[in-house]
Write a structure and sequence with these properties.
heterohexamer; A: 104 residues; alpha+beta; Alpha-Beta Plaits; five-stranded antiparallel β-sheet; 2 helices; 40% strand; D: 335 residues; mainly alpha; Na+/H+ antiporter like fold; 14 helices; 0% strand; globular; binds adenosine monophosphate; binds sodium ion
Chain lengths: 104, 104, 104, 335, 335, 335
Amino acid sequence: MTYKATKVVIITEKIIFDGVARIIEEAGASGYTAVAAGGKGSRGVRSSGRPAVVDAFSNIKIEVITSSREMADRIADEVAAAYFENYSGITYLEEVEVLRPQKF
Amino acid sequence: MTYKATKVVIITEKIIFDGVARIIEEAGASGYTAVAAGGKGSRGVRSSGRPAVVDAFSNIKIEVITSSREMADRIADEVAAAYFENYSGITYLEEVEVLRPQKF
Amino acid sequence: MTYKATKVVIITEKIIFDGVARIIEEAGASGYTAVAAGGKGSRGVRSSGRPAVVDAFSNIKIEVITSSREMADRIADEVAAAYFENYSGITYLEEVEVLRPQKF
Amino acid sequence: MDLLLDFLTRFVTQFQSPSLAFLIGGMVIAALGSKLEIPDAIYKFAVFMLLMRIGIDGGMAIREADLGDMLLPAAFAALVGCLIVLVGRVTLAMLPGVKTEDGIATAGLFGAVSASTLAAAMVMLEADGIAYEAWVPALYPFMDIPALVLAIVLADLYLKKRKAGADAKVRIWPIVKESLQGSALSALLLGLALGLLTRPDQVFEGFYDPLFRGLLSILMLIMGMEAYTRLNELRRVAHWYGVYAAVAPLAHGLIAFGLGYLAHLATGFSPGGVILLAVLAGSSSDISGPPTLRAGIPTANPSSYIGASTSIGTPVAIAIGIPLFIALGQIVFDI
Amino acid sequence: MDLLLDFLTRFVTQFQSPSLAFLIGGMVIAALGSKLEIPDAIYKFAVFMLLMRIGIDGGMAIREADLGDMLLPAAFAALVGCLIVLVGRVTLAMLPGVKTEDGIATAGLFGAVSASTLAAAMVMLEADGIAYEAWVPALYPFMDIPALVLAIVLADLYLKKRKAGADAKVRIWPIVKESLQGSALSALLLGLALGLLTRPDQVFEGFYDPLFRGLLSILMLIMGMEAYTRLNELRRVAHWYGVYAAVAPLAHGLIAFGLGYLAHLATGFSPGGVILLAVLAGSSSDISGPPTLRAGIPTANPSSYIGASTSIGTPVAIAIGIPLFIALGQIVFDI
Amino acid sequence: MDLLLDFLTRFVTQFQSPSLAFLIGGMVIAALGSKLEIPDAIYKFAVFMLLMRIGIDGGMAIREADLGDMLLPAAFAALVGCLIVLVGRVTLAMLPGVKTEDGIATAGLFGAVSASTLAAAMVMLEADGIAYEAWVPALYPFMDIPALVLAIVLADLYLKKRKAGADAKVRIWPIVKESLQGSALSALLLGLALGLLTRPDQVFEGFYDPLFRGLLSILMLIMGMEAYTRLNELRRVAHWYGVYAAVAPLAHGLIAFGLGYLAHLATGFSPGGVILLAVLAGSSSDISGPPTLRAGIPTANPSSYIGASTSIGTPVAIAIGIPLFIALGQIVFDI
Ligand SMILES: Nc1ncnc2c1ncn2[C@@H]1O[C@H](COP(=O)(O)O)[C@@H](O)[C@H]1O
Ligand SMILES: Nc1ncnc2c1ncn2[C@@H]1O[C@H](COP(=O)(O)O)[C@@H](O)[C@H]1O
Ligand SMILES: Nc1ncnc2c1ncn2[C@@H]1O[C@H](COP(=O)(O)O)[C@@H](O)[C@H]1O
Ligand code: NA
Ligand code: NA
Ligand code: NA
């Protein structure tokens, strides 16, 4: 037996990780998972792992599972509003199924 | 032409990786992919990468693509039953589309 | 307000990353995100992180968000055609929702 | 009175040791919110180098040592390891607000041994010109393994009794094996074997030994930063952990000092050896102990035992324990 | 005429320095498409070691120094840091095609200081037997912090004026704090404190100092590779960045050289000290400056300032600036 | 008879070398299930340091060498590299159960060179006081590149013939370039250039050289652990790979020893040089060879060639090959 939930994914610059985490926590999410990432987007290549003299600019990919669609939308909107004018980043949502809805 | 498949995602403590991998293999999955992760959940922050004196407690994110929904459910259930009372971790399912169903 | 988009995921050997990235760019995608990964599949275990004498053979997981389903299919097909006879790798698609469709 | 003053003077002198300075420096910059990061790869490598340095040296020493001399200290090391766990079982683990298995796991961690604390003591003894048998650091596993095994066995017995019915035997060998295979003990034993069976003198003197002191300073820095960072974790568990973690390193060290003194009387165990035995007892494991306990007592909450050890136990053992045991040794042995 | 020839000879001699050779080697292999990778952990560790080496040495020197001697050079360092930013504000940031805040950020980065450039100059001075007060490298933060703070404040003022209405005060302390907490300054200050307050002589002489030169060679290699790799990024922004990045290190260094000369006349500031002050001014920050600016002036495009600094500013500062300032010093002070 | 005994004595003596001890130690702890991990960053850095050490030393030697002396050994190195591949083509690649392109790739890997094996031999020669021209290790690329190129060309020819029709020419330059740009060769060549064109003596003597032996011991440990770990992979392919991997290092070394002996007679190539040439031939590439072959012969199964090389070829080359070639050299040259 599974329950619907929404996953918000945010891929952005490592340097704003703390700010994004704050938005996620304030939105009331039960947690998040972060993974180091590299990538290429409209603002150029971001490496990860290799000796970048300016490592703070590599990417991080953050996932949040939320049981409420509204919370998911709010997180995505707030992160985009707070940062994506000045920092590179993308965000998207996915439908997932969780086993223990009370966890989220 | 694509075919439906189910992806099981397990985010948990690195220290139980071997046990989780065994469950996945015994369930008959054709493989899995693992990524180092950090995160925050009900049991506190788990860092990854920085010098944690106790690195064994950072997270790992494991993905398994299965062609059968039953196998996906079984993997998720068994991992949760075997570990999630004592170890921190979450698990969720997603519908995906694969190109070569015989691979899975 | 969100818009449908397709995510292509490619998990394959690090050594062919440049070639895969070229296919993605030539298909016209607006970017991609890459994460170091380990895993197990039909061709054995690929570790990541630990001192592998032959590190070039660890995995990489690449995600591309595309606004057009055709582009997604093309990327998946071309990567599979170009590499998966000789290199180990899998590819799958997921439906996602993006906030700013013009980004992709 | 004079003796006390003498003791205090010696105690205070130890505080100028650079090892302590780096430890405290790490705590201070973490408290000030520094973003300094020593890469994890460097941390792991430094620990490996320390253990190899200790192991190779011990192995070369054992080659020439009279094995009989090691017997009593090794037995005492094992005894102390078990004693610590038993004492923890009937004190900490019984206290209100402390979950029994969490208390047992904590006692196990404090019974086990920290390579960095040991290394810091070796450097400080050297600075004071206090000699010890080169095989003393190799007593490490004799205290470490019994402590971890006993803690896991006690926790198992407790949990099974609680569940009643179930009375499958606890198997000891898998726990010993897990412990020996951990990264810390396998590096130490590898070094021991290399020192004992081969002639690694040149690479020891040209590489492992000269880098020892410097890498230790970096480890001390990391331990200090970690200690501060993990204080939070400790705050979320019962206050008794804080009390235990502050008192235990000193109490354990003094017990071991007493036993070491007996060995001194009986077989001429060196003053430096007695001090190091006390340091081994006072230290709590930071590298291989936690994963062994996590796997061995999965129901225990790691925040309690790791928090207690990393954020209070280890700083107390290094900053107060080592100076204390050295000063004590100087008084007792009149050196 | 003779003087010019003498100058040129000395200038050219500096090119045989191994530091330069590693820098150029890095650029060449990157240009040739080499897949050589120095792990990021090693890079971070090498930077940490350099800063600790500089800090500890400085701290030990300050212990014995007459603090009065430091006053004027420290004031000049701060003055130069601010001057550089102000000059950049009215030149680069005004040029056509240069977004004002991008120009200000770039000036901030060039006002800030690079530890590797500083270290390269120290090694080259040593090779030439030119002495300096050991506390000179500790002037680093006196130039670095004012430059970054002023740049962020100027950008803020500019952006607020443009938006009109909004006139909330710019708060300076958070910027200073952010800067002090960054990995570079906190390693340097930690080293300073350790050198000043404790006795780390043995670990300094046995570890931090002997590894200094070797790790610097590796850093130079990485800087060279990065410089080439980031050229692309620079190409995408206005050409004026290239011009500024080529000229600024030399101009800034000369200004500082002049002020240092005044200090020499006034309080006997050493020739080596004057040269190092010029190098500090000529260098542009590569480690802690960029994230501080990214957070402080988020609307500025990092490609512009990092590209300008890493791919042109730093190579020019090291390959032309250092030899130039040393040759100048040799002529001016007749050493 | 006496000669044989003498040979065996010398052969056995070599086994006490610490390099071997670390290699075997690595295999043993891996077999015992140790969780010891040397971080990947340390491994990569150690390899880099070794290659720079070899390159810089070679470059400084070439500066003073008579280039004529290098000619014959370099030609022989290239010849041996090609010979090894050709022999593998008509033996291993023809055997039942061995896919032709897998066999060719394996021969290519065994024709290529391992920096760690080379370094181990250099340390062992030094221990025995056997001299060699300092440029000999710089023969590395002369054997490495031809072997890899030839293997890729042969595989291409074979695959195209099989597919018939298709007969596009095989382009050699891209393969050479790929090989030169790999991390191993570019570090070596960078070192060579720095040694040849600049004056890195101080940083060489204070950093690259003193760390050489110690980092090598760590590499040997890693190679040992890898060898054991990859045995599984080898088990899944035809047994012939095991046979080839055990015999080839010795056979290839002996061929090279013979050619080296000719060079000794012809141009006075040193005994140590002859031994090192044999070691180069006996070694199989572990760092840059595999990715080059993976890209160059994509249809070949990497488990076969990497398994054969890492888990059997390299241990045999180090543990049996080096002692054998040294003992042989001692007998033949009466040193
Ligand atoms: N189409 C895309 N698919 C996947 N990841 C993307 C895509 N576009 C951008 N990204 C990721 O988002 C980061 C920031 O993108 P941008 O703001 O466009 O520079 C990039 O570095 C990539 O990691
Ligand atoms: N809501 C969530 N969204 C994404 N990841 C989560 C979430 N909750 C927990 N996690 C991840 O699962 C791990 C274990 O969670 P927990 O068992 O709640 O401590 C955390 O460290 C996170 O990496
Ligand atoms: N069923 C699966 N689920 C998730 N990842 C997989 C699966 N099968 C293969 N992979 C990943 O794809 C890589 C290549 O697979 P293969 O080509 O089967 O060797 C593996 O190393 C895994 O990382
Ligand atoms: Na203990
Ligand atoms: Na500057
Ligand atoms: Na070879």
